[in-house]
Amino acid sequence: MSSLTRPEIDRGLRVSIVEGAFAMVYSTLGGGMFLTGLALWLGANSFQIALLSAIPALVTGFGFLSGYLVRRAGERKALLIWTAGIGRSVFFVLVPFLLLRMKVSLVLFFATVALSSLIMNVAGTVWQSWISDLVPEERRGRFFGLRNAIHGVLGVATAYAAGLGMDWLKAKGHEPTGYALAFGLAVIFGLVSTLLLNRQPEPELAPRPRLSLRDTFIGPLKETQFSRLALFLAVWFLTGTLASPFYLVHLMKNLHFSFAAIGVYSIIGGVTGMVMQLLWGRAIDRFGARPVTVLNFALVGVMPLLWLFATPSFRLPIWGDALMNGLVWSGASLGLWNLLLELADNPAHRESYFAIYTAVTGLGAFVASLLAGVVAQGLHDFHVTIAGLVFVNYHIMFLAAGVLRFVTLPLLLRVHERDAKSVPHTMRALGTLALWQLNAGKDTVLAALGLRSREES
């Protein structure tokens, strides 16, 4: 139970939304297409691009430090402010080199990414522990749905505006200046986000027994449902993320997307996701996190397969993927987060739950990224034309990721949530609601056109 009053909780949730908005701008400008673009500008090959995804995944094990540090500090606020502040400032080391149009070594580039990722992993685990105590259980679906929707729209708007600016600078021959501006602004917005954390109230830490190092690391895995979720996550991220390092690279190198076009891709998913986050949040509060998670993970396997059919002159599959990103990936991520919060209900292991979560997903993604990098680099010259479609090394990763996502679903079905509705019941209820909404929309359109009265007569 939270030690805060209702007004304090409400104020904390408002602060969290504002703070997260600045954090979203930081992550948009300091990651994604700008981080990938900078790696390509520095001359990274396919294996090194995969390493760019692998390094942040590798350091996820350091999340376990957060539990130890929280116990030593006795609070989370100061620890989070220091780690988030330092972790978000690290990228500023690249800015002077880029302003002077100097190509830093890939070693320095990857070291910067690794250091920031390591520190931010500790900060992220502390934040997860703090926010899970701050948000009342009965409001989690709606709150995180609203928070994610707002931040999603802000993220895509930032990506599109910054993408336009980057395209303009690139056309003028000032590409490194664009990256300098992106990372410099990212640091500024990240520090504002960090300072806002000081205004967010922290619930009092529940009394915690002293745990052995062994129990800190594996205690939550003795809980049946959490261990089943951890197994699913480990296998899914090991297999379903095989193509993750190459989506943006494929857009830039093979499909010839500009930064602005990538921004449009983000806008489609972000705007759709804004609406769906709100709907999925309400569905989670009504039916439970498990059925929403299962339904959406059953559909995300389609997304990598769409990339098999995209060409520079036929981009419809990419726009379809962007739409599905908003429709189903938003529900999968929101459902998974709420399912984790539901299962991570032992205060003695609070940070350990989140550390295990980030470790199993991160290590799975790390191995997948390295494996994908080796395969993609080994098949660098792969080039096959079938029915007029050209397939390259990245397409093998897309096919494997799509198929393997479906293979992991039985592991998710073994996870159960207390008081959650069944998947079939949720499907029927959501289907009925969707039909009702469509019918209501049809009636509104007919009435607006003056056709309803003639139909009824």
In short:
This protein has a single domain, classed as Up-down Bundle (Growth Hormone, Chain: A).
Across the major sheet, the strand order is 1-2
Q: Cα distance, first to last residue?
A: 59 Å
CATH topology description: Growth Hormone, Chain: A
Q: What is the CATH top level name?
A: Mainly Alpha
- CATH architectural name: Up-down Bundle
* Helix content, binned percent: over 70%
Please state the overall shape, judged from the principal axes of the Cα atoms. Answer: globular
The CATH homologous superfamily corresponds to MFS general substrate transporter like domains
| Low-confidence runs | 453-457
Name the average pLDDT. Answer: 83
Question: What is the domain tally?
Answer: 1
Classification by helices and strands: mainly alpha
Instruction: Give the total of beta strands.
Output: 2
Encode the helix/strand succession as letters: HHHHHHHHHHHHHHHHHEEHHHH
Question: Main beta sheet: strand number and arrangement?
Answer: 2 strands, antiparallel
Number of helices: 21
Strand content: under 5%
Q: Any idea what the radius of gyration is?
A: 23 Å
Describe what you observe in this structure:
- The chain is mostly helical.
- It has a single domain, classed as Growth Hormone, Chain: A, CATH 1.20.1250.
- The chain has helices at 6-29, 32-41, 46-58, 64-73, 77-89, 95-99, 106-134, 140-171, 175-196, 213-218, 224-239, 247-254, 259-287, 289-297, 302-306, 316-343, 350-378, 393-407, 409-413, 423-448, 452-456, and strands at residues 383-386, 389-392.
- Strands 1-2 form a two-stranded antiparallel sheet.
- The model is unreliable at 453-457 (pLDDT under 50).
